[in-house]
Design goal:
single chain; mainly alpha; 13 helices
């Protein structure tokens, strides 16, 4: 029952939420993604490998972004406008390129048109794999930012699979996807700071790795994603709060929404992939009750933090629309130690 419910919920909401989810290191604000990528930011590959395919957009191998937040403010809740602009200049073209391919992969048409689109999408993925796209993250912010891109790339592959294109014979693409997953796991296990390895960033990383685990059939990756879920869900206190997100001062409500969206999507993904009951999964209901009441939720966070909250945008509030299967369907394993 839980698995069937999870699949139904997942199929109905994942497309909306994947478009609405903000970049990993931004967490609550979307990049400027409207329009085409700047001409000087991404270049097209010299020649398309498939007849009838448009020129491919390149993705960079290396990212060197730094945080958009004023680092002199302990809560990391005050944006430095100049830093944000520099960061968007580097990340927006990447997001635009991936989104363009994702939209094309989902486009409907005649069977022949769909087949041709799939062929061109695979060619693009093969090109990204050959160039080692997004495999050299030079800063902490770059590592945190990549998680969202990895998830969106996984979404492209899942779209192809849903349309009958099996990528099991695409060794170069599969090796590249495995590299993205393993680099992500290694970063959070050994390099990420003590907050990033336990807060909303880790949950989105868990989602990205879970999606790649499903594509690649990798049990180790799936296990790592379950641990990422436990790290977040087992922190939810009796009132539904996440201590690390409360530290974000006037953005605490926004960050709880972001954390809930990542954890809920991760729970649904793991359940849809056949995972048994997840550690502390019943606590998500507390978190959902806390964040799903709009202005009333904002007042609760203001009382708890002592700081008036920024009211989340409608887009940010969409995360609360994701409702998990009932607790009696999902079951619970209680607390998990050492997380």
């Amino acid at each position: 029952m839980a698995l069937q419910t999870a699949r139904r919920v997942f199929l109905s909401v994942v497309a909306v939420l994947s478009m609405a989810a903000p970049a990993a290191s931004q967490s609550v604000e979307s990049l400027a993604l409207s329009g085409s990528p700047p001409a000087n930011a991404l270049t097209a590959a010299a020649s398309p490998p498939g007849q009838g395919c448009a020129s491919q957009l390149d993705l960079p191998r290396r990212l060197e972004t730094v945080s958009k937040y004023d680092q002199t403010v302990a809560s990391k809740s005050v944006i430095d406008p100049a830093a944000r602009q520099r960061r968007e200049n580097e990340l927006a073209p990447v997001a635009n390129a991936i989104r363009s391919v994702a939209i094309a992969a989902r486009r409907n048409g005649t069977p022949e048109q769909i087949a041709q689109t799939a062929t061109c999408t695979i060619a693009t993925l093969r090109h990204w794999a050959a160039t080692g796209a997004l495999t050299d993250m030079a800063t902490s912010d770059a590592n945190l930012s990549r998680d969202r891109f990895t998830s969106e790339i996984a979404g492209i592959v899942m779209t192809l699979q849903a349309r009958g294109r099996d990528l099991r014979d695409q060794g170069e693409i599969r090796t590249w996807l495995a590299t993205l997953a393993r680099q992500t796991m290694a970063y959070y296990d050994g390099q990420a700071g003590p907050t990033a390895r336990r807060n909303n960033h880790r949950y989105l990383a868990g989602l990205a790795v879970a999606e790649l685990a499903e594509i690649l059939g990798e049990k180790t990756m799936r296990s790592w994603s379950k641990d990422a879920f436990a790290i977040g869900a087992c922190q939810v206190d009796p009132q539904g709060y996440l201590p690390l997100e409360l530290a974000r001062a006037e953005r605490a409500y926004e960050y709880h929404l972001y954390a809930y969206g990542a954890l809920a999507r991760l729970a649904i993904r793991l359940s849809a992939a056949g995972s048994s009951a997840l550690p502390c999964e019943d606590r998500l209901a507390r978190l959902h009750r806390l964040v799903s009441r709009g202005e009333a939720s904002a007042h609760d966070f203001a009382r708890r933090t002592g700081v008036d909250q920024r009211m989340p945008s409608r887009r940010q509030l969409e995360a609360a629309a994701l409702v998990l299967p009932r607790r009696e369907d999902m079951g619970t394993t209680g607390d998990v130690k050492n997380f």
